[in-house]
Specification:
By secondary structure, the protein is of the alpha/beta class. The strands form 9 sheets. It has an 8-stranded parallel β-sheet. A 6-stranded antiparallel β-sheet has the order 9-10-11-16-13-14, covered by helices on one side. It has a 3-stranded antiparallel β-sheet with strand order 17-21-22, with no helix packed on it. Strand 23 and strand 24 form a beta hairpin. Helix 3 packs parallel to helix 5 and helix 7 packs parallel to helix 8. It is globular, with a radius of gyration of 23 Å. The structure holds 2-acetamido-2-deoxy-beta-D-glucopyranose (NAG) (8 copies). One 2-acetamido-2-deoxy-beta-D-glucopyranose binds next to helix 7. One 2-acetamido-2-deoxy-beta-D-glucopyranose binds next to loops. It is found in: Secreted. Keywords: Disulfide bond, Glycoprotein, Glycosidase, Hydrolase, Lectin, Secreted, Signal.
Amino acid sequence: MLFQETLMLLAASMAVDASQALMPTPPMGFNNWARFECALNQTIFTETADAMVSKGLVKAGYDRVNIDDCWPLHERAANGSLQWDPEKFPNGLIWLGQYLKNRNLKFGIYSDAGNLTCGGYPGSLNYEEIDAETFSSWGIDYLKLDGCNVYNQGSLDSEQTYKNIYGHWHQVILNMSRPLIFSESAPAYFSGEANLTDWYLVMDWVPGYGELACHSNDIATFDTPNPWESILTNYGFEILLARYQSPGYFNDPDFLIVDHANLTLDEKKSHFALWASFSAPLIISAYIPDLTDDEIAYLTNEDLIAIDQDALGLQATLVSQDGTWDVLSKSLSNGDRLLTILNRGDEAGSLSVPFERLGYPSQYSGIFVVKDLWTGATSEVSNQITANVPSHGTAVFRVSSRLAAIPTGMIFNTASLNCLTANGSSVRWTKCTGSDTQIWQITSGRSISSLSDLSKCLSRDAKSGTVALEVCQGWHKSQKWDYAITGNVQNQASSDCLTEGQDGVVTLVECLVENNSQVFELPSGSLQR
Ligand SMILES: *[C@@H]1O[C@H](CO)[C@@H](O)[C@H](O)[C@H]1NC(C)=O
Ligand SMILES: *[C@@H]1O[C@H](CO)[C@@H](O)[C@H](O)[C@H]1NC(C)=O
Ligand SMILES: *[C@@H]1O[C@H](CO)[C@@H](O)[C@H](O)[C@H]1NC(C)=O
Ligand SMILES: *[C@@H]1O[C@H](CO)[C@@H](O)[C@H](O)[C@H]1NC(C)=O
Ligand SMILES: *[C@@H]1O[C@H](CO)[C@@H](O)[C@H](O)[C@H]1NC(C)=O
Ligand SMILES: *[C@@H]1O[C@H](CO)[C@@H](O)[C@H](O)[C@H]1NC(C)=O
Ligand SMILES: *[C@@H]1O[C@H](CO)[C@@H](O)[C@H](O)[C@H]1NC(C)=O
Ligand SMILES: *[C@@H]1O[C@H](CO)[C@@H](O)[C@H](O)[C@H]1NC(C)=O
């Protein structure tokens, strides 16, 4: 497919009107998988539902209970419908759905795109209409469709095969009088490759077909060691995908593993704060009746839930990254700005972030009102925010001012993870260090300037055809760049795309479809829809 053609198709599939969206903000609730895997039963779900009410989770917005794999019998009924396992669910799923409804909880279920689920139970391939109808008749409104055992004539599981099956499901769901919320696991089957093309080709269609997508690894289950590494791994995949998210479609970095034995409270709070900063699904996979007061306290933090559920639905993006500190930001629907600071280091530490790095004008010396979302304390601050953050902790602040913020932060290649770096009048792709030379402002006029010298704009040099930093001339097309959902950054004068060439050279090359050298993440808000 031609590049322009791809873009036009994507633009059409992405045109989701937030007010019409089935799910304008990310889901919140419970799923049994990471905590119980296949050892599930009715009691877990009834006890969980009761505890979600009594511990205030329902009141805080957690309104879903989702069953994962291993719930059905191994055989379908004579008429082809799936059947719940009556040993695991003695009163049945219709009864359980009613039990949840009586507690203001919605009911979600799991199936698989292929002919078997990951756990070896019947999959939905060729039973899509029947299964959708069955789930609906049980009072279910949410389907997670996994992607195990998807075959293409017995062998290759290609991107196109997944697209056909998930696309068919999309049609089936559109036909329903009460459409299911559709959680697509397809991208997870293409993540983690050195060649990112197929992963991104899948990501290009999932937002058009459903409301959320598990994009990478399953998060650590209760019985796996090193959950902090697992959280950071999924965080690392999530930050490559911010451009895909908007109200009605959410990237899913997987469950909140609140009662994992090998996480510290600071790590659990980080997990929650990072997921909330992403406006990610907040789906708890833990034994909720036994959660501690500390755990319930952070899960029900109203300020952080408001960040997660913000109407803009933006995913926070990286302002800077230096190996120890990750700084992220995004805009909020009331004009406020979020600042999130993750300390990856093994020691507690302190970091100051100037307001300029949050997208506010550098000349402005006025006061910002800053709320610490962990303590709830509000203070008036000028110039910069300083945070003291424990090892593996995350500080989160909500910044209010009369000024509008400009999208500001790193521009990085999602394959090499190199940062666009200014050096005088030249640019290169280099290791990210957190320097001002790697922090870029993207104006509404589509120009791109580094904080190290805002008088210069990223330009196509007409003589050499390469990329340079030249004195900004607001109107000039050689200094205007369009950022597409595919990750391409296209120059308006030449229609070529920003590229990472050999040895970090910045070049302008004919636009390619989801090629490692041309897929970039820009500060959230840079993408025009
Ligand atoms: C339900 O599952 C849990 C966790 O696997 C187990 O501890 C409990 O004994 C089970 N209860 C019943 C009634 O099967
Ligand atoms: C199919 O069979 C099952 C089990 O006998 C039954 O519960 C269900 O209502 C049937 N579905 C339809 C659509 O008739
Ligand atoms: C699933 O599909 C594969 C490949 O087409 C086939 O070999 C296998 O027998 C199928 N399994 C079931 C349970 O239908
Ligand atoms: C959707 O409904 C129409 C009209 O009832 C039907 O012709 C079509 O086959 C259905 N499509 C799917 C994918 O179920
Ligand atoms: C990206 O495109 C270049 C130039 O066409 C090609 O050599 C390279 O193999 C492509 N990379 C990937 C990962 O497909
Ligand atoms: C990367 O994957 C794409 C899609 O499968 C393929 O067309 C391309 O040739 C691959 N590139 C390399 C360098 O293997
Ligand atoms: C926790 O970590 C210890 C080693 O540090 C390991 O032995 C144990 O298996 C881990 N427990 C879990 C539940 O991951
Ligand atoms: C910046 O450019 C100068 C002159 O081209 C070069 O000598 C220097 O190594 C570059 N600095 C960095 C950090 O790349």
